[in-house]
Amino acid sequence: MSEPKWRKSSYSEASANACIEIATAGPLIALRDSKQPELPWATVSRRAWAEFAGAVGSGLLRTEA
Hints:
Blueprint: E1 7-8, E2 20-25, E3 28-33, E4 42-45, H1 46-57
Antiparallel strand pairs: 1-2, 2-3, 3-4
């Protein structure tokens, strides 16, 4: 698989200590730590990502560490 085109989470701030980057990787969503992009990245299904993002957006999950 070729290198995905990464983009920072819309929740990320320039001074944030915890942020992720996401990319489309075929039928999956790829996730990586934006501070350590050289490390391996994880993938999840589009459905799992949509459910997770929906839960964060509705306040069911906290986004702080």
